[in-house]
Amino acid sequence: MKSIRALVAAAAALVLPLAAHAADAQPTLNAADTAWMLTSTALVLFMTLPGLALFYGGLVRTKNVLSVLMQCFAIAAVASVVWVLFGYAVAFGDGGVQNAWWGGLGKALLAGIGVNTVKGTIPETVFVMFQMTFAIITPALVVGGFAERMKFSAMLLFSLLWLVFVYLPVCHWVWGDGWLQKMGLLDFAGGTVVHINAGVAALVAALVLGRRRGFPETAMAPHNLTMSVTGAGMLWVGWFGFNAGSAVAANGAAGMAMLVTHVGAAAGAAAWMICEWVRFRKPSVLGIVTGMVAGLGTITPASGYVGPLGALAIGLSAGVVCFFATNFMKRVLHIDDSLDVFPVHGVGGILGTTLAGVFAAPFLGGVGFAEGMTMGKQVGVQLTGVAVTIVWSAVLTLVLFKLVDALVGLRVSSEEETEGLDTVLHNETGYNL
After folding, report:
1. Terminal Cα-to-Cα distance of the chain (whole angstroms)
2. Would you say residue 429 lies in a domain?
3. Which H/E stretch holds residue 290?
4. By the 8 A CB rule, do 398 and 204 touch?
5. Between helices 65-82 and 124-146, what is the axis angle to 10°?
6. Domain around 360
7. Strand 118-119 relative to strand 122-123: parallel, antiparallel, unpaired?
8. How far apart are CA 222 and CA 407, in angstroms?
9. How far is CA 286 from the centre of its chain?
10. Cβ–Cβ under 8 Å, residues 370 and 382
11. CA dist., res. 423 & res. 308, Å (int)
12. How many C-beta atoms surround the C-beta of residue 34 within 10 A?
């Protein structure tokens, strides 16, 4: 009898630790992480509606303000539907042997995702919704490249196709366990996926559609800077969800991401203001808010990897580099990227993604490089991610514009552009005074 008991005890001693280990390996919901991610999701959606909509809306002329607001709202609606149908599956699904390139369709219509499905330490439904807000704001950023001259039908069709063929693949490569992520690319919250992607697409849009009537001879000043500053303030606050939320946890990484995001924004705003003050003798409200956005876009890819020192350097460089890039495009090249998407988001994304490979160094206050990387190797990987995103976005965006042009036409007529898109396309006016 004693021998039997000894055998049972020995077996239990072997089995129970294995069972406990298996239980520990199961994903466990964390209430604090979940609460933070619910908040972050709301903050990122707040960036587009109303943040970006108001920021862009104030920058165009009175006759086109509603068209920009309508475009942002329509993109939010369409992108959300696509995300549920198959967008999330393509970006974050498990594509098996093809997982390096796309996520497959196994999670189309959010198959297998329910109330109790966990992604890391949060409900997968929350992760789905958080990433959906990124899929909304990225094509909405492109609106600034063709504002005041594109047909609404063309905008809607292009945004849909661009989301599917440009955004989703890059999103998977960088964040969905794709080949760039496996290579060791550091992009915490969207330097490549969001800012370079959208910035390059906006540049292609400006080149394909051509200049607005009267540009650059006729001044096309923002019609309501108060509206733009309000929207910019919303972007600044919402960006904490964008960057700190990308930690997908309520932890030290999220706290540092929030801190460096604010430092980057402040440094970018200050640097742009000083550049403008020196160059034009007067600092402008438009300049300081644009510098803030440049600082935010540039710190985004590095926000989870750098410390305050790196954030300060990145933000200051963003304000200076993006200031000169914007003036060079408008005053020298005369490219009509209406709302400066490429020189702010595109150039900022390139700069921030590259510098993430420098300021992630521990001796500069960063968290370290990807496994097995030196600074030189990491910067090489960063430049690879930058180059791939630029080429992919540029080529596919050009092809999609040509396709949409053949199907519905891209640009309104000269008479319609003169009258204004609000009346011509929506039969409404932004102001009835």
Report:
1. 97
2. no
3. helix 285-299
4. yes
5. 140
6. 29-424
7. antiparallel
8. 32
9. 22
10. no
11. 48
12. 17
Structure tokens, 422: 């609000």
pLDDT at 165 over 80: yes
Q: Which of 85-99, 391-405, 406-420 has the lowest mean pLDDT?
A: 85-99
Q: How many CB atoms lie within 10 A of CB 259?
A: 16
pLDDT, the chain, mean: 94
- Which ranges of 302-413 would DSSP assign to H, the alpha helix? 308-327, 341, 347-359, 375-407
Residue pair 348/318 in contact by the 8 Å Cβ criterion: yes
Tally Cβ neighbours within 10 Å of residue 60: 28
CATH of the domain at 162: 1.10.3430.10
Give the Cα separation of 379 and 186 in Å (integer): 10
Average pLDDT on 312-329 reads 98
Comparing CA positions, the residue from 329, 334, 272, 328 lying closest to residue 298 is 272
Is the Cα torsion angle 374, 375, 378, 383 positive or negative in sign? negative
The widest CA-to-CA distance across the chain, in whole angstroms, is 101
What is the DSSP secondary structure assignment for residue 306, as one 8-state letter?
-
Question: Span 249-267, mean pLDDT?
Answer: 98
- The pLDDT tens digits of the residues spanning 402-423 come to 999 999 999 999 999 999 999 9
Check residue 14 and give its pLDDT.
Answer: 40
Helix, strand, or coil (residue 432):
coil
Tokens (6 digits) for 359: 């300021």
Locate 209 and state its tokens: 């559609």
Contact 216, 336 (CB under 8 A): yes
**Confidence (pLDDT) at 94:** 85
Helix (H) or strand (E) holding 69: helix 65-82
Whether 124 maps to a domain, the answer reads yes
Whose structure tokens read 């709202």? 73
Number of domains in the chain: 1
Asked if 272 contacts 323 with a C-beta cutoff of 8 angstroms, the reply is: yes
Q: Is residue 278 part of a domain?
A: yes
Residues in the chain: 433
3-class DSSP state of 103: coil
Q: Is-contact 137 194, C-beta < 8 A?
A: yes
Tokens 């394909």 label which residue? Answer: 208
Percent of the chain scoring above 70 in pLDDT: 93
Choose among 103, 79, 299: nearest CA to 189: 299
Model pLDDT, residue 95? 74
In a domain, 9, yes or no: no
Q: What are the residues whose beta carbons fall under 8 Å from the beta carbon of 20, sequence distance 6 or more? A: none
Encoded amino acid at 65, one letter:
V
One-letter amino acid for residue 242 of the chain: F
